[in-house]
Design a protein that fits this description.
globular; Rossmann fold; 13 helices; five-stranded parallel sheet; eight-stranded mixed sheet
Length: about 425
C-alpha cells in the first residue's frame, strides 16, 4: 500500500485555507483555479458572504474575475467552520506583542480547530510569517491535543507540517503568487515534498525545498534586508533636512555609481511584513541583531519627524486646514495595516484640535476606526482637499494623485515625504 505521504498532487481533493485576508483568499482562489476544490475559512461572516457571492472584500487589481470564476464553478466556498480536508493552509495574522515577540493566539486558534478534524495523512502548511521554530511548535501543539496522531513518518496516523511563506507585493499579488520562486520548508523531508506537490499546482516559479526553520528565517531575512536599506534612505532624509540638501537629488546622483542603488525615503515603513518581520529576528537573537534593531528603530521614528515638520508649519495658522494625501501603507492599495501615514494623520488630528484634516485616500470608502469618530477629520476627494488646504502633506504616492495640477499647489505649504513633485535631474 502506498503511504499517503507519497501521494500525487491530484490526491489533494480538498484543501482548506484558514484565513481569507490579503494572502489567504488569493491563495485559495489560485488553487481552486487549477481544479482543486477549496474550502476557505474565516471568522468574519460578512467577508464569507461576500466571497460566496464572488465579491472581493478588499482592493486587489485583477483578482475579482478569478474569484468570481472559481466561486461560480463551485470550486471555492467560504465558511466560518473548519472542515476536514486533505491539506490545510494557515494564513492568519501574526502580530507582535509589546515586547516585539510573536503573539501566536491566531495560530493557536486555527490549530485547535484543525486538530479536531484530523485523521492522519493530512498536510498542514503555515503560511503566516513567523519566527524560527513556530511551525515546529504548531506541530507539537496539535499532536499534544491529539495524542492518537504522530509526527513520525511512515504511519497512517502521521500528520505532516511545512512552512511556505508568501513573498508577494500588494497590488501585484495575483501575478507574483504564481510567478515568484517559493521557499518551502518541511518539518520532515516528506512534508516538504508534499507541500511542494501542493504549491506546484499553481506556482510557476522555482520551488526551493529546505527545512521549516530555514524557511521561516528566509522570509524574515528578506524583509529585514529591505528594512535596513529603507532605514539608510530615511536616515539620509533626516540628515539632508538638517543640512539643507534635496535628498532625492542626492540619491539620484549617488545611484549613478555602478554599484550603488539607494532606495527612496518616505514617512516610515508600513504593512504587515517589513514593519513587523525584523522584530521577530530581534526577539529571537536580541544581542546579535544590533543593526536590524537600529534600522527598525530608525524607520519607526520617521513618522514623528514628519509630524514635527507639519506642526511647525501649522503654527503659522490659527485654524490650519491640512490635506493629508494617502493613509494606506503603500501606493495604489487599500491596506492600512501598520501604516505610518495613518499614524501620522491620527497624531496630527489629536495635536491640532482647532485644525481640520482632510484625508484623501482613493482606495477606501470610509475612514477607518479611530479616525471616523474624530470631529476634525474628513474623507475628501484629493483635488477638493488640496483646493481647501493651507498645508498639503504627501504621504502615499498613489497614481491617482498625478491628477492634481501643479498650479493648485503654488499657494500651499507643501510637505512632500515621497519626492512626488520634484523634478528629476536633466541629462545632457
Amino acid at each position: 500500500m502506498t503511504p499517503q505521504s507519497q501521494r500525487e498532487p491530484s490526491t489533494f481533493r480538498w484543501v482548506a485555507v484558514i484565513g481569507l485576508g490579503y494572502i489567504g483568499l488569493p491563495t485559495a482562489a489560485l488553487i481552486a483555479s487549477k481544479g482543486i476544490k477549496v474550502l476557505g475559512v474565516d471568522t468574519n461572516k460578512a467577508h464569507v458572504e461576500q466571497i460566496n457571492r464572488g465579491e472581493v472584500p478588499f482592493y486587489e487589481p485583477d483578482f475579482e474575475a478569478t474569484l468570481a470564476g472559481v466561486v461560480h464553478k463551485k470550486l471555492l466556498r467560504a465558511q466560518v467552520d473548519v472542515p476536514h480536508a486533505d491539506a490545510y493552509i494557515v494564513a492568519v495574522p501574526t502580530p507582535f506583542n509589546a515586547n516585539h515577540e510573536l503573539d501566536d493566539r491566531y495560530i493557536r486558534e486555527a490549530a485547535t480547530s484543525i486538530a479536531a478534524k484530523l485523521s492522519g495523512g493530512e498536510l498542514i502548511v503555515l503560511e503566516s510569517t513567523s519566527p524560527p521554530g513556530t511551525t515546529d511548535r504548531l506541530a507539537q501543539f496539535i499532536v499534544e491535543q491529539r495524542p492518537d496522531l504522530t509526527l513520525e513518518p511512515g504511519h497512517t496516523t502521521t500528520v505532516h507540517f511545512a512552512h511556505a511563506p508568501e513573498r508577494v507585493l500588494p497590488g501585484r499579488i495575483m501575478v507574483e503568487m504564481a510567478e515568484n520562486d517559493r521557499v518551502i520548508g518541511g518539518v520532515t523531508p516528506i512534508a516538504a515534498t508534499m507541500a511542494s506537490d501542493l504549491y506546484g499546482t499553481f506556482v510557476r516559479g522555482q520551488l526551493l525545498l529546505t527545512d521549516a526553520r530555514t524557511a521561516e528565517m528566509a522570509k524574515l531575512t528578506e524583509n529585514s534586508f529591505r528594512d535596513v536599506n529603507i532605514a539608510f534612505a530615511n536616515e539620509l532624509s533626516v540628515i539632508c533636512d538638517k543640512l539643507g540638501i534635496d535628498v532625492w537629488e542626492l540619491i539620484e546622483l549617488a545611484n549613478h555609481h555602478p554599484r550603488v542603488n539607494i532606495l527612496q525615503p518616505g514617512p516610515g515603513v508600513g504593512g504587515h511584513c517589513i514593519a513587523v518581520d525584523p522584530w521577530f529576528i530581534v526577539a529571537a537573537a536580541p544581542q546579535e541583531s544590533k543593526l536590524i534593531r537600529r534600522a527598525r528603530e530608525t524607520n519607526d521614528a520617521k513618522p514623528a519627524f514628519v509630524i514635527k515638520q507639519v506642526l511647525d508649519k501649522a503654527a503659522r495658522f490659527k485654524s490650519p486646514v491640512i490635506a493629508a494625501l494617502g493613509i494606506a501603507f503603500k501606493a495604489d492599495i487599500d491596506d492600512l495595516r501598520e501604516s505610518p501615514s495613518l499614524n501620522i494623520v491620527t497624531e496630527l488630528a489629536q495635536q491640532l484640535p482647532d485644525g481640520e484634516i482632510l484625508v484623501a485616500e482613493p482606495n477606501i470608502d470610509s475612514l477607518p476606526a479611530g479616525l471616523d469618530d474624530m470631529p476634525n477629520v474628513q474623507l475628501k476627494d484629493a483635488i477638493a482637499a488640496v483646493d481647501a488646504a493651507d498645508i498639503v502633506v504627501m504621504l502615499v504616492d498613489h497614481s491617482l494623485f498625478r491628477q492634481i495640477e501643479a498650479d493648485s499647489l503654488r499657494e500651499k505649504v507643501l510637505i512632500d515625504t515621497k519626492g512626488f513633485w520634484r523634478t528629476p535631474i536633466p541629462r545632457s
